[in-house]
Write a structure and sequence with these properties.
The protein is mainly alpha-helical and about 160 residues long. The chain contains 6 helices and 2 strands.
Length: about 160
């Protein structure tokens, strides 16, 4: 599968992200979900849902507390940015936001088992992104693009 996001596929192809910020933000998100799972601070799920909502929309991520913390850490440590196309990451953030909403709604509805399932999925996916830069939502985005015929392999004639 072609790993690039070309202009004919992505209307926001010019949207760039610092993947190092993404890695740290993913780690913080996983940590907040672990607080939700293992402590009495169940309100943490609502905080990360609001944060996820801010990150889910292009241009709003700069207001997300997790991104602010990540940017501060990288600036303090003077880490060189790792720039990447952010189109599939926006899609992934929206999927993550929906999962945060799911965890919050199930928690409020009194169904902690389902809330915990969503939370554990978020822990897993965010740790994969944090430590291995493996973004499950991004892979879903690429698969949808491929299946829809918008992103065929480079050796394809179509």
């Amino acid at each position: 599968m072609n790993q690039t996001c070309t202009a004919d596929i992505c209307a926001t192809n010019d949207f760039q992200i610092n993947y190092r910020v993404v890695n740290i933000t993913a780690f913080i998100t996983a940590a907040v979900f672990l607080v939700f799972l293992f402590s009495d601070y169940k309100w943490a799920v609502f905080l990360i849902t609001i944060d996820g909502g801010l990150r889910a929309f292009k241009g709003m991520g700069k207001f997300a507390p997790t991104n602010m913390i990540s940017n501060w850490i990288l600036a303090t440590l003077k880490v060189t940015p790792k720039i990447a196309n952010g189109t599939s990451k926006i899609f992934a953030s929206r999927i993550g936001f929906m999962m945060c909403i799911g965890a919050s709604v199930f928690f409020v509805a009194g169904w902690p088992l389902y809330a915990n399932i969503f939370a554990w999925m978020m822990v897993l996916f965010n740790l994969l992104d944090s430590f291995f830069s493996f973004c499950m939502g991004c892979q879903m985005y690429k698969a949808i693009q491929y299946i829809s015929g918008r992103n065929k392999p480079a050796d394809s004639e179509a």
